[in-house]
């Protein structure tokens, strides 16, 4: 991503935030339809996405050190965009409702439920843990280079027991649900598919929950908190995250995680 594109995206993000705050300040009245809050949320969602893509680039944010799309990076990026935009949109509206010198206290910034902090720990733990495991596998010398390789001409796509793309442009969305070990990189990883579907379902449901909360709250009332997640669902997400490690061949030929 060139510098011009980077600054264009960041400028677009700043413009989106200005529009969101202006709409909130200009229409924070009792007669304002609740759907305008959804408009503010959509603008903030676009702004956060453009800002994040302007800082690092979407592909750079989603591709790991092996030049492959990473499931854990995709999950982290998705939750970051959704939670950040929801926090900003609701906070913009709450600040617009605040009147200096008025009676009572209007909560300006939305509270974040403890379960959301736990979710952040699950998501970031998966990102860090997956990176550590992959680094260990990448540093493990392969037992057999294979018939198509030799000591003098090793396959440049092999890094330890891991598969890597030569260039970042070689990354493809299918990387998210395929194995990362060299030799089986084109086979589907059903654990990754299961985790992707579960995370996508929870993410979409959370977006719907935030939208329903916004619509159900009177436009002249502040929104005090973001929706939380049940403990059972968090436990399931943590379990799926824990089972998403990549398999490699151990020293005795046994599969290890």
Would you mind describing this structure in some detail?
By secondary structure, the chain is mainly alpha-helical. It contains 7 helices and 4 strands. It has helices at 3-27, 35-56, 58-62, 71-97, 114-138, 190-216, 231-242, and strands at residues 158-159, 162-163, 248-249, 255-256. It has a two-stranded antiparallel sheet with strand order 1-2. Strands 3-4 form a two-stranded antiparallel sheet. A hairpin with a 5-residue loop joins strand 3 (248-249) and strand 4. Helix 1 (3-27) packs antiparallel against helix 2 (35-56) and helix 1 packs parallel to helix 4 (71-97). The longest helix is centred in the first third of the chain and has 27 residues, at 71-97. Residues 243-257 have low confidence and may be disordered.
Briefly say what this structure is:
The protein is mostly helical. The chain has helices spanning 3-27, 35-56, 58-62, 71-97, 114-138, 190-216, 231-242; strands at residues 158-159, 162-163, 248-249, 255-256. It contains seven helices and four strands; from the N terminus they run αααααββααββ.
Q: What's the arrangement of strands in the largest beta sheet? A: 1-2
Span between N and C termini?
Answer: 35 Å
Globally, the shape reads elongated
What percent strand? under 5%
What's the order of the H and E elements?
HHHHHEEHHEE
Q: Percentage of helical residues? A: 55-70%
Report the count of strand segments. 4
Structural class: mainly alpha
- Rounded average pLDDT: 75
For the biggest sheet, the summary is: 2 strands, antiparallel
């Amino acid at each position: 991503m060139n510098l011009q594109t980077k600054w264009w995206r960041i400028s677009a993000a700043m413009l989106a935030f200005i529009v969101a705050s202006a709409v909130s300040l200009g229409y924070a009245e009792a007669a304002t339809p609740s759907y305008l809050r959804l408009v503010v949320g959509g603008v903030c969602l676009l702004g956060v996405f453009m800002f994040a893509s302007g800082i690092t680039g979407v592909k750079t944010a989603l591709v790991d050190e092996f030049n492959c799309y990473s499931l854990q990076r995709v999950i982290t990026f998705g939750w970051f965009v959704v939670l950040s935009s929801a926090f900003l949109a609701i906070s913009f509206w709450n600040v617009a409702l605040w009147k200096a010198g008025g009676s009572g206290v209007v909560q300006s910034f939305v509270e974040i439920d403890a379960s959301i902090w736990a979710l952040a720990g699950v998501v970031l733990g998966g990102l860090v843990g997956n990176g550590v495991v992959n680094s260990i596998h990448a540093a493990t010398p392969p037992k057999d280079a294979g018939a198509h390789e030799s000591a003098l001409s090793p396959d440049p796509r092999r890094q330890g027991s891991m598969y890597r793309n030569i260039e970042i442009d070689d990354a493809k969305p299918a990387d998210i649900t395929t194995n990362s070990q060299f030799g089986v990189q084109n086979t589907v990883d059903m654990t990754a598919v299961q985790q992707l579907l579960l995370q996508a379902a929870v993410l979409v449901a959370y977006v719907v929950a935030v939208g329903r909360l916004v619509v159900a709250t009177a436009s002249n009332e502040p929104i005090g908190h973001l929706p939380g997640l049940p403990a059972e669902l968090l436990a399931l997400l943590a379990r799926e995250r824990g089972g998403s490690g990549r398999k490699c061949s151990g020293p005795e030929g046994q599969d290890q995680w």
